[in-house]
Amino acid sequence: VLVVFLFQAICLLLDSTFNFLDSTIRYTTSSTRYFNTAQTIACRVKVEEALEDFFETYTQVRENPRHAKISNTDAIHLNTFLLLILRLVHVTITAAETSKTPGARLDAGTDSTTNVQKSKKLFNWKKPFYDLAAYIGIRPSSGKLVRAVKTSLSVLISAVVVFTYRKRLQAYGWVYWAPMTTALVSDSSEGGTLRLSFQRLMAVLLGSTYAYVSVLVTQNHVGVGICICLFVGLMGYLKTDPRKEYFASVCAQSASIITFLSNHQGQMGESNKAVLARTSLTFLGIFIHVLISNILLPITARALIKKKVCLMIKNVSGSLQASCDDFCTFIGPSVTPQPNTSSKQASFNLMKTLGETESIADSFPALLDEAINEPNFWKRPFVQVKDRYNDVAKSLRRISANIRFVHRCTTI
């Protein structure tokens, strides 16, 4: 029954398309007849309604359990036929709307094209700087600028605090440890949210404390090695849980690095002082970084969600354009390619872009849960918009799967 509805939707789509074409051809065949703009617009609206009905019916057919039982060959034949229908509709509508005859144009003003042709190209003073940055390999952005300011400010505050209170912190000859830790953490924590910042702080505190206690209790190189190996193995087991992976990695790295770098000339007695000093300085450096990054333009999960949604939409749009160009070349080789099309396709990796989009969509539920658990600094709670973001991610995931299928059909 759904197949019958699908063919009815196809017939309705073709009828509305040719009716729209007929409404634009009347004026071109007989220049003395009056051109009915309202009728042409009404026919165009019917085409949009027929397209919407076609896609809804096709979605019902795909979601039908019987559709999953058909073979891949039959599925390819069916989808190729439907793509041919859509190609015919697209070409017909494009021919009707882009015709140079006055009857095919729905806009009232005809002087706009003349003005566009006479307009002079303005000089863009930003382009030489962007070209120079691209030649050097630098891609400036507001995010990188904010990150650089945060890192510089964190290192400066960390150095000032350590040099001011170096006697109370018992820093001795390791005053450089806190600024260095701040710089390393700032470099390795780009895009971290509030939850990750808290996990990093707790992981460094736990790993550093374990390292200090291990050196203080064992007083033996072999014992310290065994304790650290057991601790790293335990953290490796915790890394199997995706929710605890980041915490376990930072915790294991903090414990192992502080322990093995704190041994001064192989003397365990002097290493106790080094472990205590470096533990306090490491914790101070991490704490200053977390404090600055969360006070000065903090990165929240909601901001990351908006950024990733925009990235997914951009990737899907580029992939859809590339896939449509490939399909048009596959269906009609006589179509003349636009200039610079081959260079754009060569620089655009379709499968890599789709894989990046799908990986973002797969990690979206965890990011949505993290945004709900964050403190609410906005007027609208995130619970009200969570379902919308989730629907957008699912829709983009389905579009990505359809693009993969079209690409597979054109590369047979």
TrEMBL record:
The keyword Ribonucleoprotein does not apply. One of its GO terms (biological process) is malate transport. GO terms for cellular component: membrane. Residues 1-16 form the signal peptide. It comes from the Eukaryota. It is found in: Membrane. It is a multi-pass membrane protein. The chain crosses the membrane at residues 210-234, 246-263, 283-305. Its main location: membrane. Keywords: Membrane, Signal, Transmembrane, Transmembrane helix. The keyword Membrane applies. This is Uncharacterized protein.
